[in-house]
């Protein structure tokens, strides 16, 4: 994940793009006339072929076909989706139905709330954007495709597919992984996040298949109480920046029972995130589960109370990783990685406080403090090209209270066992580990940078 780009996106997209578009969208919705007489909500029909669980019998259903959507995969169905949204938004516990056996092409759209509570977006068919940068309307944002903004209490669910059609975006000359040398050429590089939830709360996203996003598949920012369950996210291992689920400035996030394979972080947790619970997910191929990168351009980042448990990471560059830039401040604390199976993972356990995407990162004294991190029951195999445990903490701000128990990591091939690497890492081994982590410094450092933690 290219963090500098994210930060830029947040600022630019909000200030210069988001607000004007929102205004235009409102105006558009008001002036556009439905192609047929505005349909009244149909009584609930037996449409739930797969995965849906709608109990209320009085639910009002807003089928996008009734608003003029064609669903042939070619016609632009954006207006129909906007009209269905505007109508359903006014009704308590409304269901917007995207029916099975249809493929809807919709442009970059902001679905704006607040809406009445209990809204369900039931996706049984396929939704996809225009195919690649050349088909993308010039006046649409190239940083986001479907945006949900200021929504409280919505569920997005169903057995359908969201197909990001990312390939032409991945092949832009500016993208990394483009050729063997990894050189990036100049040229436009913005690529849309498939699904962005912004300033929203009490969201459920479940059951869907999301594939081939041009950039991140999901991005949640400034959200709280988000429940993600049973998602299937898939993009090729060489697709650049296709993080599965990215969260930042969000809290109360649960990510359960999902399978993610992609070309970047499986789940990435950015600054301002706390109370995040990740359980029973399978990642790989991917870049693993990451906290960070944090502290870019001397920023303050606070992340705490994150649990990742009962999960599998396979054929990935990293397993569980905490990455920070030099020069930041704030803290990552109270993180538990428990019961994680590693299968041929390059860096199963990794702390990198020297994260840097260019060659020219200079050494700085300030850093995001890393403390109170538990690694428990992490077993499996590592790709022996690099050590299985890599704890590279800041020169000036040591990591404190790292505890390891029941860690058993064996090389996926060959006999050579690589020694763990530690730098300025303090903590305790609660059990014998394989390989043994002799380099972990016992106890607490003499200088305790409490100052950093207190800022959070
Ligand atoms: C973009 O331009 C097209 C054609 O001029 C117009 O129909 C559409 O509403 C515009 N979209 C936005 C988001 O402004
Ligand atoms: C959150 O959503 C659930 C399920 O839709 C609902 O029962 C609950 O009342 C909502 N809570 C809030 C605070 O909106
Ligand atoms: C874990 O997630 C997988 C994939 O969604 C699911 O098939 C399995 O039932 C889940 N296991 C548990 C214990 O919930
Ligand atoms: C930590 O997060 C979990 C949810 O993942 C929450 O239930 C718990 O209350 C949080 N703990 C604290 C101390 O806030
Ligand atoms: C930065 O610090 C690291 C670790 O102390 C050292 O290996 C490296 O040479 C330093 N780099 C520069 C540019 O000073
Ligand atoms: C070390 O971290 C663990 C887990 O977060 C916590 O329970 C414990 O209190 C911490 N110990 C110290 C000395 O801060």
TrEMBL record:
The active site is at 287. It is found in: Secreted, Cell wall. Pfam families: Glyco_hydro_28 (PF00295). It comes from the Eukaryota. Gene3D superfamilies: Single-stranded right-handed beta-helix, Pectin lyase-like (2.160.20.10). SUPFAM superfamilies: Pectin lyase-like. Belongs to the glycosyl hydrolase 28 family. This is Pectate lyase superfamily protein domain-containing protein. It comes from Nyssa sinensis. The lineage of its organism: Eukaryota, Viridiplantae, Streptophyta, Embryophyta, Tracheophyta.
